[in-house]
Design a protein that fits this description.
- The radius of gyration is 14 Å and the shape is globular.
- Helix 3 packs parallel to helix 4.
- It is α/β, with parallel strands linked by helices.
- Strand 2, helix 4 and strand 3 form a beta-alpha-beta unit.
- The protein has a three-stranded parallel β-sheet with strand order 1-2-3, with helices on one face.
- It has one domain.
């Protein structure tokens, strides 16, 4: 695969200590909720990311995560990913992601 958009919605500790009531914390952090940074990193570690030209982090919670924390967690899977990693932020339009042909 040449590009991947991966959700990094929340950091587990930030969600547990954040402003959401317990029922919403359970929904967001549950098995059918949103992906945490750590879950996204585990998915990334299980796939062949050698061809990735772009790894895009999306759906980052403004209250239960930070773009820097999400970036560091995924870059921790493989240092070379950091140069190919972009974080989408709520309220901002991203630029185009250009793909280089093989």
């Amino acid at each position: 695969m040449d590009a991947l958009l991966l959700e990094c919605n929340h950091d587990v500790q930030m969600l547990q200590n954040g402003p959401y009531p317990p029922r919403l914390q359970e929904r967001v952090g549950g098995n059918y909720g949103h992906l945490s940074n750590d879950q996204a990193a585990r998915i990334l570690a299980q796939i062949d990311h050698g061809r990735l030209q772009h790894l895009v982090i999306g759906h980052v919670s403004e209250k239960n995560n930070s773009p820097d924390l999400a970036r560091r967690t995924l870059a921790g899977v493989c240092e070379s990913l950091d140069a190919r990693l972009s974080v989408l932020e709520q309220g901002n339009v991203s630029g185009w992601f250009c793909m280089n042909p093989d």
